[in-house]
Structure formats: C-alpha cells, structure tokens
Design a protein that fits this description.
Elements (H helix, E strand, L loop, with lengths): L2 H6 L6 H8 L7 H6 L6 H6 L6 H6 L26 E5 L2 E5 L27 H13 L5 E5 L8 H12 L6 E5 L2 H4 L6 H8 L4 E5 L9 H12 L4 E6 L8 H13 L3 E6 L14 H11 L10 E6 L4 E4 L5 E4 L2 E5 L5 E5 L5
Parallel strand pairs: 2-3, 3-4, 4-5, 5-6, 6-7, 7-8
Antiparallel strand pairs: 1-2, 8-9, 10-11, 11-12
Helix pairs in contact: 11-12
Length: about 350
C-alpha cells in the first residue's frame, strides 16, 4: 500500500473527531454529516489555524447546509448524460465522472448530491465500457475532461486503462483531469503517477486552490512534479463568501499560483447548488475582484470570472459586454448566444 492510500485510511470522518481535536461541541455537525459525507485528510487538517478560519469553512460541516432550498442539480447534469457518468453539454467535449470519491469532501461541492455515495459515479468496468463506446461513436468529441469525485483517487492501473482507451480513439485530441489532490492529498502525486500521465500527452491538469494558505510545501512539491512531467497546470477557484471574497486575498492567491507554475484559469461564481447557499457572494463582488486584478497584476494572474448558467446552458464569462444588471436580475449571454436570466439569491 502506498503512502497516499495509507493517508486516506486515517482521514477524519466523524464530527466527534473534530470536536475532540478542536474542543468544540460536535452535536450540531452530526445531522449535517449524515446528509453530506464528511472526510478530511490529515494534511488539510494540519493547515487549519483555528475554528472558523478560511480552511476550516471549506471542510467542516455547517448546519446552514441543511437550510438551503436550492436545487440539487441546477446545472442539469443528469439530463445531459447520454450514458451514466458522462455529461455532454458542449458539442466538442464531454465531462466524464470517473470517480465519485474525493480525498476531502468540500462543503461547497457542486456535486454534493453524489460524492461519497457508492451508487453514483462512473468507475465500474461496465460504466467505463459504456462511456468509451459513446465517445468512440461520437466523432465531434475532441476533448475529454475526467472529473468526479476526483479522478486521481483511482489507482494507477485503472487510471492508466481509462487514459489508454481514450488515447486509442482517433478523434480524441486531448484529455484534461480535474483534481483537488494537490491541495488535499498531495502525497498522491507520486513519481509513478507522473510517469503514467506523461505517456498520454497532450494531457492537462486543472487543480483547485481557493486560498493562499493552501499552497503549502507538500502541495508545491506535487505541482512541481506534475509540471516537470510536462503537464500544463491550471487552477479553477470558486468564489466563496468569507474565504476568498477579498481582492487582496484573491490577488495573492493568483500570484502565488503562478510562482508554482499553475496558471489561473477560472474564478467560478458559486453554483446554485442545494446546501451551499452560505458560501454564495453577490455577482458584484466577483466583478470587484476582477477590477482589482486587471491592470494591478500580471495578465497571467488574471483568470476568467464565470457563471455556470442554470439549466445546463454553459459557462458565461462576466464581462461588461455580456452581462447586464436589472435590480437583482442579471441578463447573461452564453456560448450559443442565448440570453439567460440569472437571479441572485438573498444573501443576507
């Protein structure tokens, strides 16, 4: 058993463990953890400085998760799945949910309805066959994004099988992997894994740092290993209330990412996912942060600020020429040129 697998075996998985470690009353957390799984790696736990800090809020259950009346699947992923675990929203690319497990279950997760549930996901051999068959039969697909859950929670043999079968499809030109393990379980990024990934270029990895304090020495080493293997690294940050909704914090995060060879790619407006409302910020806050980045730091440190529009209609970059505000309503235009009304929730 490798180190990263042993680390998974000693994760915090119960509110009582949190209560004992931090000296808090765990009782309010118990019903939340029953509804939405709890798992925190020892690495990420070591980065928390005190209860309520920006890292605490990303991983510790909060009773407000049970008070949100939004939809569990506002992006309509299930309706856009031609076979289980495969999401085909854009003409030339698909998202393949190859795992439904993560090293850590983030409280803001867009797939809270699925992660940690053994009946969800696309990791079984039959599901792999179905997804590969669909991709092979759909010639328009040139870009496959492996997501989940976390694809790097698969063992090397299974991951290698998936990558090898994708690489054998002539019209698949590139593969992307979305993963948070450089942040939450950096021990997973082994030299063996990097040798495996290096076989399947062009391959891109997008990771998920949300706060400067997540860029810890082990995470820096993990990103260096991937970059040294010739893998371009990007980062998708979620704009989170009380965590990174501050222009100075976000600018520092973007600058530190570039320093470890990770290119900022997206800042996501928080999705309208059930159980995540307390993380949501006004759209205006995101535009304020973008104004603080543009012209005030390197263009390389300036990602796109996007809303993933409800109903599965795609990501919309928030720029002056594609977003108009009317009270609490925004009028957006997506990649098809369709006009979309996006209503901000009550953030009081």
């Amino acid at each position: 058993m490798e180190l990263w697998q042993r680390q998974l075996g000693v994760c915090i998985t119960s509110p009582e463990e949190i209560g004992a470690r931090f000296g808090i009353d765990a009782a309010p957390l118990i019903p939340v953890a029953r509804r939405y799984p709890l798992q925190i790696t020892t690495h990420y736990l070591s980065l928390i400085e005190q209860p309520g800090d920006p890292l605490w809020r990303q991983c510790i259950p909060d009773p407000r998760e049970l008070m949100d009346d939004q939809q569990p699947d506002p992006l309509n992923e299930e309706e856009l799945s031609p076979v289980p675990g495969l999401i085909h929203r854009y003409p030339d690319r698909v998202v393949w949910l190859v795992s439904n497990h993560c090293a850590m279950y983030c409280r803001f997760c867009m797939r809270k309805r699925q992660v940690g549930c053994p009946t969800q996901g696309g990791g079984g051999s039959g599901a792999i066959d179905d997804a590969i068959h669909y991709i092979a039969q759909t010639g328009a697909i040139r870009d496959v994004i492996l997501s989940g859950g976390d694809p790097l929670l698969l063992d090397d043999d299974v991951l290698g099988e998936i990558l090898g079968r994708l690489k054998a499809i002539p019209h698949v030109e590139m593969i992307r992997i979305g993963t948070r393990v450089p942040v939450t379980l950096p021990e997973r990024v082994t030299t063996r894994l990097c040798r495996l990934l290096k076989r399947f270029h062009p391959l891109y990895v997008n990771t998920h740092f949300n706060h400067p304090r997540e860029i810890a020495p082990l995470s820096v080493r993990a990103c260096a290993r991937l970059a040294d293997a010739g893998i371009p690294l990007g980062n998708q940050t979620v704009l989170l209330r009380g965590i990174n909704d501050d222009p100075a914090v976000m600018k520092l995060l973007m600058q530190r990412l570039l320093a470890i060879r990770v290119r900022p790619y997206y800042i996501h407006q928080m999705d309208l996912v059930q159980g995540t409302g307390h993380f949501r910020t006004p759209v205006g806050k995101g535009l304020e942060i973008m104004a603080a980045l543009r012209g005030h730091t390197s263009g390389l440190a300036t990602p796109y600020y996007v809303i993933d529009s409800p109903g599965g209609k795609g990501k919309v970059p928030l720029l002056p020429d594609c977003a108009e505000r009317h009270g609490r309503m925004w009028l957006l235009r997506n990649f098809r040129g369709e006009s979309i009304e996006y209503a901000e929730c009550d953030l009081s």
